[in-house]
Design a protein that fits this description.
375 residues; six-stranded parallel beta sheet; 44% helix
Length: 375
């Protein structure tokens, strides 16, 4: 079989989200199935590190597709031409988009429908495109994969699609997340928080991540606990970050909030593993990776009681209503005062994190691809 794959998010030194999902799943799939040929479709020059084996044929077909007009051009004209030229038997796209101008069977991975739940948190042009096109993508796909039962239910209900068409393949965390010893923790705290304990948030600075409520919750915690606890925020500035950064300028505890920006992978692991707890008050997640990263590091988790997060974290997290900063603060104070609760969450987190792996996700996605290829 010739399996064409959308690999436009495989970008050297900039693997996030979709790109990391494609890398971790297809690196495994390609190596596990040398009997098949894989056509990797890039929209710009590629790096050879993404050509995982001899059964991969890289194809560059531009222009780089980074906004709605070019999305339409790439998926509906460039991709079909490549599928015809290389006689593909199936097309797999892990960014939620596919072609509406090909008869080749398609498998699409729709991670979530956050743009429908929070339309204000996405660029207007992107939101219009997704609102108009996403239902067509789901309708035209032979199989739809997604990353949680929550997202499956959302897709089935919003687009009135047969649930048998949608498969849950989950997601997983990057390799390397593990506990660190006390010497590493002391070194990290000396470097970033003047030796003080800290809560950590890991992720992009974006309205959907609800960081203004995190600041409000931290204020309540500081006022009531009289603690020297710090708040560390590790992640890149994303869309509409300016409201957060401007608000931080006049924030009472701004000197106890540390913005670390984007960190190299090993440094991020060490910073995560050295935290007192992760606080992740996101308003919406199709899966939610940072809580599992923290659990792998034996760091307790406070997170949101909404969307897919309770499904993914199970009984291994402390949940709060993300819309209620007082509730988030209450959970921070509860964890701070109850060392036994903290110990129990760490133990449960170690077990919960083992439920997810890239081997499992790759195997489930391969099953979905096989179903797509079946007449």
């Amino acid at each position: 079989m010739r399996i064409a794959v959308n690999t436009r998010f495989l970008l050297k030194d900039y693997l996030e989200g979709y790109g990391f999902f494609v890398q971790e799943t297809f690196r495994r799939i390609v190596l596990a199935h040398p009997e098949h040929e894989f056509i990797f479709l890039f929209d710009r020059p590629y790096n050879n590190e993404f050509i995982y084996a001899a059964n991969v044929t890289p194809v560059v077909t531009g222009p780089p597709a980074r906004h709605p007009i070019l999305w339409k051009l790439w998926y509906d004209y460039k991709v079909p031409a490549a599928l015809r030229k290389y006689k593909a038997d199936v097309f797999v796209s892990a960014d939620g988009f596919l072609s509406l101008r090909t008869k080749v069977p398609q498998c699409v991975v729709v991670h979530d429908l956050s743009f429908l739940h929070y339309p204000a948190f996405i660029k207007k042009s992107h939101g219009i495109y997704l609102k108009n096109q996403q239902p067509k993508f789901v309708e035209n796909a032979k199989r739809v994969a997604t990353v949680s039962e929550y997202s499956k239910k959302d897709i089935v209900e919003k687009y009135r699609v047969n649930e048998n068409k949608v498969r849950v393949v989950y997601s997983a965390v990057k390799n390397g997340y593990h506990p660190v010893d006390e010497s590493v923790k002391e070194k990290i705290k000396a470097k970033y928080t003047d030796g003080k304990e800290y809560f950590i948030y890991v992720g992009s600075i974006h309205p959907r991540k609800n960081l203004m409520n995190l600041l409000k919750a931290f204020s309540v915690f500081k006022k009531k606990m009289k603690s020297n606890m710090q708040l560390v925020i590790a992640g890149r500035l994303a869309w509409k970050f300016d409201a957060f950064t401007e608000g931080l300028k006049t924030y009472k505890y701004r000197n106890e909030v540390r913005l670390l920006g984007y960190l190299p992978q090993q440094e991020l692991i060490d910073v995560t593993a050295s935290a007192y707890a992760l606080v992740y008050p996101s308003l919406f997640e199709g899966f939610g990776v940072p809580p599992l990263e923290a659990m792998n590091c034996e760091v307790p988790v406070i997170t949101s009681s909404v969307s897919s997060i309770p499904e993914i974290c199970g009984d291994a997290a402390l949940y709060a209503n993300p819309e209620d900063f007082e509730d988030v603060a209450d959970k921070m104070m509860l964890l701070y005062k109850d060392e036994q609760l903290r110990t129990n969450l760490i133990a449960k987190g170690k077990i919960q994190a083992k439920e997810y792996s890239w081997d499992k996700t790759a195997a489930l996605l391969w099953n979905c691809i096989e179903e797509t290829m079946t007449p």
